[in-house]
Write a structure and sequence with these properties.
2 copies of one chain form a homodimer. By secondary structure, chain A is of the alpha+beta class. Helices cover 51% and strands 17% of the residues of chain A. In chain A, strand 3 and strand 4 form a beta hairpin. Chain A binds a DNA duplex through helix 4.
DNA sequence: CCGTATCCCTTATGATACTG
DNA sequence: CAGTATCATAAGGGATACGG
């Protein structure tokens, strides 16, 4: 059993890292196929995408629905628990956008080709 | 200049990782000396603590106030920008606590010796 | 289309000893 | 007390090729 001393650490265990929060956030706008997500987040590799989705599913934040057909079709969507993170993810995104705006002058941060989903 | 495609990534750049958000959260309850923080977060090494504080300061989230005396005294406190993250950090902490409670039955997550600050 | 398997590299983090 | 330096290790992530 993993031990933590505060809820913050737990949350980070679940959505921390480079991709988990981001992928979950994309799913908030509705069920998505693997290939859709890959297109939405071009920088993610297929390996990391699948691995991230597995992690999120294992944590109970994401549902995986498989259609038995050829070619295969799989859809991911947030569970209720996953949905409960929506406002937080939105705030995190918003805060970062404002921060980047302020810091843009210093030439430190820049948000390029912001996706519509955000 | 670092490029991002969404605010979420920016926020994670600033408070992501194992310690940054946690240390910042602890500072929310008021200015703290280095040694205080170390006591509050026993698992962090001195190296990581100092490094984390430096990062937070460089991002403009934390102020470092040095008193010229012997033995040295240094106090860290959140800037206004840092303060603006307070509600988000609280929600992240709260969400994790609830999650851990729910998952406790599965024997996956446990929050031990929760600090008063949380 | 979806997912797996390797191999490799970078980065983040940790242990420890040391200085003003 | 606050901070630095060095070395070592672990974890995360990326590139690529392959399979059902």
């Amino acid at each position: 059993m993993k031990k933590f001393s505060c809820g913050y650490e737990v949350t980070m265990e679940v959505i921390g890292g480079k991709w988990k929060g981001l992928v979950l956030y994309f799913l908030m706008s509705g069920p998505k196929r693997t290939s859709e997500l890959k297109r939405n987040i071009p920088n993610i590799t297929q390996k990391m995408l699948i691995q991230t989705l597995k992690d999120l599913e294992a944590s109970g934040l994401v549902n995986r629905k498989m259609y038995n057909q050829v070619p295969p079709k799989v859809e991911y969507s947030p569970t209720e628990l996953g949905e409960s993170l929506k406002p937080i993810l939105q705030e995190l995104c918003l805060w970062g956008s404002h921060f980047a705006e302020q810091e843009y002058a210093e030439g430190e941060f820049e948000i390029v080709s912001p996706d519509e989903a955000f």
